[in-house]
Structures are given as structure tokens and as C-alpha cells.
Write a structure and sequence with these properties.
The chain is 66% helix and 0% strand. The chain is built from 7 helices and no strands. The longest helix has 18 residues. The N and C termini lie far apart (46 Å).
């Protein structure tokens, strides 16, 4: 029996791009999160696409370009509070719901992974 990655189970590259394209307008409208996302939105979305591709088992795109995705260390310059971590996770849940992925086995597995990542990112109270 072949074991499928989350990447395969959610629909591969098309699904990852849909997640990224749905998520970032929400981020930029969110008063808690928008201050953290200054700069070129295209580059921010590209990095997120690479990270989510790697996180879900679709290939080590992020690591190949930037090295290991130690997200906590990479985000230390940004003030990630418990409120912001929860806001990020809430928007990810909304995104997975809006795209219909949360109702799939792969989408649930992805959200579980993201739920584990959010508290790790907290670096300020």
C-alpha cells in the first residue's frame, strides 16, 4: 500500500497555491497580522508556497533555496505574541474551510500540523 503525503492528499501544487492566494488577502486585512507582513507580497507568497510545499511533503523547495526552515528562528525579528499566533492559525483554518480542504483527510492533517507550528512561533508575550 502506497502512503500518500499530505501534499498529494490535498491536491498538490494547485491546492498549495490556492491556500496561499486565499490566505494572504486575509492576513493583509487583519489588524493583528498585517504589521508583520511588510514588503513584497509576491515574495512573501512565494516563500509561503515553498514552505507549505515542503511541510506537506511536496519537495524540499524551501530548504533548497534558504536552508532548513527553522521557522521560529527565522521569525525572531518579528513580534509573534500568543494573540498573533492564534490569529494566524484562525486565518489558516478559515482558508482551509473556504477552499474546501478542511473537509478532506489531507486538509485536516495539514491543519493539525499548522496547529503544532503556531505555538512554537511565539517569541513575545
Amino acid at each position: 500500500m502506497e502512503i500518500k503525503t499530505i501534499y498529494d492528499r490535498i491536491g498538490g501544487d494547485e491546492a498549495i497555491r490556492k491556500i496561499v492566494d486565499t490566505f494572504y488577502p486575509k492576513v493583509y486585512e487583519n489588524e493583528e497580522l498585517s504589521p508583520l507582513f511588510e514588503g513584497d507580497i509576491a515574495e512573501i507568497k512565494r516563500k509561503q508556497w515553498m514552505f507549505l510545499t515542503q511541510l506537506t511533503g511536496g519537495g524540499a523547495l524551501y530548504s533548497e533555496e534558504f536552508g532548513p526552515p527553522n521557522m521560529r528562528v527565522r521569525h525572531m525579528p518579528f513580534e509573534i505574541t500568543p494573540v498573533r499566533a492564534q490569529a494566524w492559525l484562525k486565518l489558516m483554518h478559515e482558508t482551509l474551510t473556504e477552499t474546501g480542504l478542511i473537509e478532506t483527510d489531507g486538509g485536516k492533517a495539514l491543519f493539525e500540523r499548522l496547529s503544532q507550528i503556531a505555538p512554537i512561533m511565539i517569541n513575545r508575550q
